[in-house]
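Ticket #292: bound-state structure for iron/sulfur cluster.
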Amino acid sequence: MIFSKACEYGIRASVYIAQKSVSKERCNIKDISKEIDSPEAFTAKILQTLVHAQIIQSVKGAFGGFEITQKNLRKIKLIDIAIAIDGTLYDKTCVLGLKHCSENQPCPVHNQFKHIKKDLLCMMQNTHLLAMSTSVEAGLSCLKIA
Amino acid sequence: MIFSKACEYGIRASVYIAQKSVSKERCNIKDISKEIDSPEAFTAKILQTLVHAQIIQSVKGAFGGFEITQKNLRKIKLIDIAIAIDGTLYDKTCVLGLKHCSENQPCPVHNQFKHIKKDLLCMMQNTHLLAMSTSVEAGLSCLKIA
DNA sequence: TTTAATTCGGATAAAATTGTCCTATTTAAT
DNA sequence: ATTAAATAGGACAATTTTATCCGAATTAAA
Ligand code: SF4
Ligand code: SF4
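RESOLUTION: The complex was predicted; output attached.
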């Protein structure tokens, strides 16, 4: 629903790393997967993708781990993570999965759905990583339940 | 994205069958999959699901096929088809895939997303099968592209 | 009654997604 | 130098989703 499992983990991991990075702390995959309740090895793979996409940074070796630059903390938005992991959103397939649909050749739900699609994209573009992490830090939201 | 492939085919097939049912025509799986551009055997499986869910009706044997009752033509909405095929929407997993999240224990995007989620659900509840089929019949929308 | 046109449903296959395991490599501390 | 703690990345396994195939059952028409 909306995102793949990989993307869900990726977003949650990013928010956790961001939270730590605000106070200049680095975190390792073991902590991350524990704190966001996700499979460790699979999450590690996803983090690699995010490193390649230059959304997060990794430091190898002892006392290494993952971190997010102060610049990215402000720059990265939800949509950047989603695109890095799930690929281009909506371009390939939309609600009814029509190939090459358009305003001229729409599916029967296009007019109802286009607003929602716009809102969703807009929301992803306006949801900043830092905002998500401060919300968690303030105890207003969480990255796992129990 | 939003729906599974199975659900996409299921919705498109339902709209096509509805379109035919308006003029009391019955259609078979060969026609359906040709007209909505979907894999025949897979679509047949999905239609079986919709028959079991009593959304469409099937008539076996020669000159048989699928049809939708006049009553269902008016009663069925997009959400009914989606639930029949993809199961309960959003209940299991939402944007960030948190288990047992709630207004009290929300993920960091809950406040931004809840409106979109409501709009989406609302749209599905208000999109009638008959409306979709008349839109296609009128040439205002289509179920396949080329 | 035979035949042809259908859906039904079980078995299976292919592909994509999700997940695990293990070794190599890197790096800081001792 | 050695060691311990990390990420990197390839190979593989499990699961889910998507898709195909085929024989059985049904039904109307010839
Ligand atoms: S809603 Fe619009 S963009 Fe999405 S599948 Fe339908 S026609 Fe295409
Ligand atoms: S948006 Fe709300 S309902 Fe959806 S996963 Fe987040 S907390 Fe749960």
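RESOLUTION NOTES: The mean pLDDT of chain B is 94.
TICKET STATUS: resolved
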